[in-house]
């Protein structure tokens, strides 16, 4: 009797992909932990150690994802990352059929008789939520409100009853999976008025402890700018002050963010010179990086922001 077994190579690759994405993060050497950041980190860790999921909510540029990974690194567990997506269904979180496996048995025991048997079975591939629940990973679900609410329904029983309901197609006896006791979840989200963001069901929000983030305080923004650009403190302070004053222009304006400070700092360091009103290169960098008219405010029929940038630079 001889036997041969074959399966699609692509299927094996898809099945292993989520597990290959597992990482154990470490705090970066350039991570800035000011009192403001440490306070948020300590609170989040306390909630997670007790067993509650943490939700970082706030506008773009307030460090939600960076904080999520920093907190996850403190837990010293393998991290599974998911990015919210409007095309997500529950199967993209739990798992689904991902190809097939074909088996063929050729029986030639009797020389004059050849017996052939073939069978074909679907192959189930676990996705990130199932793997995280099974292995006790720290799940970081970045911008989870970009996924439709019904796609996230699987989290309701995971976060409350610590049980993941799974389809009967999966090759186990039960229709559910007991969540690993070390499983932890960290969510991030943008405000609901942002494009592409869905309103989350109340049942989901009721299971999360939400930490609302705003822009960093001045000291933290200066330290981050220095760390990322390697600029002297006095130059970083000038850049941060310009950006922070621009945020106060207009109504409900959250831009420019800390990303603008970092961009100006890195480019200025690369091109040389300091943050001075007499440095033409610095002026050009600020005009280019900060030239986003988010305020929709005009003066004498012209956009206010370019004038405001020049005024702030000249006031240095």
TrEMBL record:
Pfam families: AAA_5
UniProt lineage: Bacteria, Pseudomonadati, Thermodesulfobacteriota, Desulfobacteria, Desulfobacterales
KW Cell membrane (keyword) present: no
Molecular functions (GO terms): ATP binding; ATP hydrolysis activity
InterPro entries per the UniProt record, alphabetical: AAA+_ATPase, ATPase_dyneun-rel_AAA, Gas-vesicle_GvpN, P-loop_NTPase
The family this protein is said to belong to: Belongs to the CbbQ/NirQ/NorQ/GpvN family.
Protein name: Gas vesicle protein GvpN
GO BP annotations listed: gas vesicle organization; ribosomal large subunit assembly
Annotated keywords: ATP-binding, Cytoplasm, Gas vesicle, Hydrolase, Nucleotide-binding
Gene Ontology CC terms, in alphabetical order: cytoplasm; gas vesicle; preribosome, large subunit precursor
Localization terms from the record: Cytoplasm; Gas vesicle
Record flagged with keyword Zinc-finger: no
AAA+ ATPase domain mapped to chain residues: 50-219
Catalytic activity reported: ATP + H2O = ADP + phosphate + H(+)
Organism of this sequence: Desulfocicer vacuolatum DSM 3385
UniProt region (Disordered), positions on chain: 1-25
Primary location class: cytoplasm
SMART domains cross-referenced by the UniProt entry: AAA
């Amino acid at each position: 009797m001889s036997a041969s077994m074959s399966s699609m190579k692509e299927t094996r690759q898809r099945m292993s992909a989520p597990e290959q994405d597992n990482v154990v993060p470490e705090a970066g050497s350039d991570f800035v932990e000011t009192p403001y950041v440490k306070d948020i980190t300590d609170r989040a860790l306390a909630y997670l150690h007790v067993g509650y999921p943490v939700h970082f909510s706030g506008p773009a540029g307030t460090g939600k994802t960076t904080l999520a990974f920093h907190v996850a690194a403190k837990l010293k567990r393998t991290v599974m990352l998911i990015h919210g997506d409007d095309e997500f269904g529950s199967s993209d979180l739990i798992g689904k059929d991902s190809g097939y496996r074909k088996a063929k048995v050729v029986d030639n025991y009797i020389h004059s008789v050849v017996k052939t048997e073939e069978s074909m079975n679907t192959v189930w591939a676990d996705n990130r939520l199932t793997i995280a629940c099974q292995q006790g990973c720290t799940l970081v679900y970045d911008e989870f409100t970009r996924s439709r609410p019904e796609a996230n329904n699987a989290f309701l029983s995971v976060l409350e009853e610590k049980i993941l309901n799974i389809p009967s197609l999966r090759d186990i006896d039960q229709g559910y999976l007991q969540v690993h006791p070390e499983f932890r979840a960290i969510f991030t989200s943008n405000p609901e008025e942002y494009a592409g963001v869905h309103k989350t069901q109340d049942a989901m929000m009721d299971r999360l402890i939400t930490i609302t983030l705003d822009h960093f305080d001045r000291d933290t923004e200066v330290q981050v700018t220095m760390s990322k650009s390697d600029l002297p403190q006095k130059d970083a302070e000038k850049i941060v002050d310009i950006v922070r004053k621009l945020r106060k222009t207009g109504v409900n304006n959250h831009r420019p963010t800390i990303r603008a400070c970092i961009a100006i700092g890195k480019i200025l360091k690369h091109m040389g010179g300091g943050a001075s009103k007499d440095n033409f290169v610095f002026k050009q960098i600020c005009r280019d990086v900060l030239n986003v008219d988010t305020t929709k405010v005009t003066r004498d029929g012209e956009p206010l922001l370019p004038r405001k940038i020049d005024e702030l630079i000249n006031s240095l």
